[in-house]
Amino acid sequence: MTRRGLGDHLASILGKAVGLRVRREAFGAIAMTERPAALFYLDEAGAKAMGCSEPAPEPAGSAEHRAPVEVHWTLSRRCDQACTACYTQSVPNAAPFNRERLEATVEALASAGVFHVAIGGGEPLADPFILEVARALRARGLSPSTTTSGGPVTPDLARRLTDFAQVNVSIDAPGAAYAEVRGHDRFAMADAALRLLQRHVPRVGINAVLTRSSFAHLDELVRYAKERRVTELELLRLKPAGRGRANYLEQRLTPEQAESVLPRVLALAKRYRVRIKFDCSFAPFVYHHAPEPRVLSFFRIHGCEAGDSLASINPEGGLTGCSFLAAEAGPATVALGKAWAGSPVLERLRRYRQEPPEPCKGCAYLKACNGGCRAVSAHLTGDPYAPDPECPRVRRAADAARDAARDPARDAE
Predict the structure, then answer these.
(1) What's the rounded Cα separation, in Å, for the pair 361 and 45?
(2) Which of 105, 325, 340, 408 has the fewest beta carbons under 10 Å from its own?
(3) CB of 233 closer than 8 Å to CB of 277
């Protein structure tokens, strides 16, 4: 992701891109293009070069953005896969999407200026209204994407997914290792769906949850992504949400695995020339290595943006900071409007950078990392606003504090 400070030369390039949208911000503007898929932050000069003639809006409280850039929309918890780490705790008989909420929700998203809506579940492609939702988003200028297990994908459905900018298939590990990670053997189904989608959808990728067991198959996964020529491979950190809470301690990455993620993925990306993306919760493990800015840019790595550039809509229609946090800012149709700047729930998430505890307070990557994953903090400490306890820096600070408590004289020395 390119940051601010882009002027006339970039404006001329963006003007030739497909699906260009620009949103005015207090700092300048944000521009998104669908082909090539890119997001640009522009300063005031860049905003004017893009033709933004209206005055810059007032800052939205402590929020950097006047509305989320991306919203994750969980339509329903309906799914028959029963994956062991499902963060929504999906079930086969969950209620389908409430269609009566469709028009108001899409209007709220469009009016707020949201760019991208990632539709999730459950299994979103099994929802009877999925195509209608995507079509409605497109009609208002938003870019929809979705992730699927692959189960509902048929030749007919694949041909009808034309409103989606991208579809990712969930594959944590290829071949026999798929069952080891997910608890059921449906790799052939997922692989067949991926191939079918590539015939009809412009961008098809893979989502993979990185766990203690799937980490051993990372090389195989990247090689598989290369063989299938996917658009991207996105690595997701296991979250203690839904069914993922039950075995989180046994399946989370070991400290050694977590600290080796960046060098290992760098080597695999170089070897196979595959575009690999980390989700935001990996930030503490990546920043631990003090990477150069070009590495962060290559992997599009940034820390927690919950309640600022990112928000989530749950199946009940409530807006939360992200898909793994339960606290609601209110109904999405309200919270995406005037309540965005003033919501106490979102404001608390945003203020972490201004009021961080140690060891985050003294960390050079505070602004980028924002304290790690709030869902992990909530699960392991009971406080979603505590520093991520799995961050190597936080873990070592806790170890030092325990050692000092056992031997006060040594600490005094």
Answers:
(1) 32
(2) 408
(3) yes
> Is 304 within 8 Å of 374 (Cβ atoms)?
yes
287/361 same-domain check: no
Whether 322 contacts 374, CB under 8 Å = yes
Question: CB of 349 within 8 A of CB of 308?
Answer: yes
Burial class (CB in 10 A: 0-12, 13-18, 19+), 333: buried
**DSSP secondary structure, 14-53, as one string:** HTTSBS-EEEEETTEEEEEETBTTEEEEE-HHHHHHTT--
* In a domain? residue 410: no
357: which residues sit within 8 A by CB, 6+ positions away? 386, 387
* 404 sits in which H/E element: helix 392-406
What CATH number is given to the structural domain containing 174? Answer: 3.20.20.70
In terms of Cα–Cα distance, which of 363, 382, 277, 378 is closest to 321?
Answer: 378
In this structure, the answer to whether residues 151 and 200 fall within a common structural domain is yes
Burial of 63 (0-12, 13-18, 19+ CB in 10 A): buried
Quote the strand ranges of 274-399, DSSP E: 276-278, 310-313, 318-320, 328-331
**Looking at the structure, do residues 155 and 277 belong to the same domain, yes or no?**
yes
Residue 328 shares a structural domain with residue 362: no
Q: Would you say residue 56 lies in a domain?
A: no
pLDDT tens across the length of the chain (413 residues) = 344 444 556 666 666 777 889 999 999 999 999 888 888 889 898 888 888 888 888 877 778 899 999 999 999 999 988 888 888 889 888 888 999 999 999 999 999 999 999 999 899 999 999 999 999 999 999 999 999 999 999 999 999 999 999 999 999 999 888 887 777 789 999 999 999 999 999 999 999 999 999 999 999 999 999 999 999 999 999 999 988 899 999 999 999 999 999 999 999 999 999 999 999 999 999 999 988 877 777 677 788 999 999 999 999 999 999 999 999 999 999 999 988 988 999 999 999 988 899 999 999 899 889 999 999 999 999 999 999 999 999 999 988 888 888 776 555 55
Q: Which residues pair with 194 in a beta bridge?
A: none
Q: How many domains does the chain have?
A: 3
Same domain, 243 and 100: yes
